[in-house]
């Protein structure tokens, strides 16, 4: 049966899985979900314990958590681009660095977004300085990690799938100018065919991102 990904082109974690799907050349269908619609919320609650996107259906199996989806794809639908090193120790390094963009970059970005959207007047001024400082620390750590490396953990793989959406949205809020290796890495990411397809699919939706004015013109 064809793979089905339930999510939205603007969703960062949907994008993370889309990069992986395009990298392995999978035959799949993207089922676009709008969580503002009751029927779509009900659908996601039937697929994912907390009703969050994305979810991946492969036959009778439904998976949540973007990192697990990518590991599943690499194990059961491998393509020419393997996303995890078959060596167990090397794969642990990839898993470690996969969590870094999600926890240290994406979560800090999301705090600023949530403050602007949900937390009322003055919330962004209270939340943003701490989150921006944490982003600076994360950018510096990634910049050091990329010294002498093209990709975060060996060849292009799981960690890089995570890094693109995290850096894309965080960079629109708090640019990583001044971190030269990180900037060059992001350009390498943006140049991959898989990432370009993700950008093209998300482009009509970028105007809904609360910090859309920070998205570089080349992506809009």
From TrEMBL:
Record protein name field: Glutathione S-transferase family protein
UniProt keyword list: Transferase
Alphabetized InterPro entries for the sequence: Glutathione-S-Trfase_C-like (IPR010987), Glutathione-S-Trfase_C_sf (IPR036282), Glutathione_S-Trfase (IPR040079), Glutathione_S-Trfase_N (IPR004045), Thioredoxin-like_sf (IPR036249)
Transferase in keyword set: yes
GST N-terminal domain mapped to chain residues: 1-81
Gene Ontology molecular function, alphabetical: transferase activity
Lineage of origin: Bacteria, Pseudomonadati, Pseudomonadota, Alphaproteobacteria, Rhodobacterales
SUPFAM superfamilies xrefs: GST C-terminal domain-like (SSF47616), Thioredoxin-like (SSF52833)
Gene3D superfamilies cross-referenced by the UniProt entry: 1.20.1050.10, Glutaredoxin (3.40.30.10)
GST C-terminal domain boundaries: 87-208
Organism superkingdom: Bacteria
């Amino acid at each position: 049966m064809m793979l089905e990904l339930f999510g939205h082109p603007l969703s960062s974690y949907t994008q993370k899985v889309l990069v992986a799907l395009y990298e392995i050349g999978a035959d799949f269908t993207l089922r676009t979900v709008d969580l503002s619609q009751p029927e779509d919320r009900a659908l996601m609650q039937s697929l994912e314990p907390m009703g969050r996107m994305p979810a991946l259906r492969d036959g009778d199996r439904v998976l949540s958590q973007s990192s697990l989806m990518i590991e599943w794809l690499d194990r059961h639908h491998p393509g020419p681009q393997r996303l995890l090193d078959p060596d167990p120790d090397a794969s642990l390094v990839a898993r470690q660095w996969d969590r870094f963009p999600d926890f240290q970059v994406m979560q800090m970005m999301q705090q600023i977004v949530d403050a602007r959207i949900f937390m009322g007047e003055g919330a962004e001024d209270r939340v943003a300085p701490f989150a921006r400082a944490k982003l600076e620390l994360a950018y510096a750590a990634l910049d050091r990690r990329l010294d002498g490396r093209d990709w975060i953990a060996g060849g292009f793989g799981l960690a890089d799938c995570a890094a693109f959406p995290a850096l894309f949205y965080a960079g629109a809020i708090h640019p990583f100018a001044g971190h030269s290796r990180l900037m060059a890495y992001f350009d390498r990411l943006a140049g991959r065919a898989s990432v370009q397809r993700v950008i093209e699919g998300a482009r009509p939706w970028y105007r809904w991102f609360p910090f859309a004015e920070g998205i570089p013109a080349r992506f809009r």
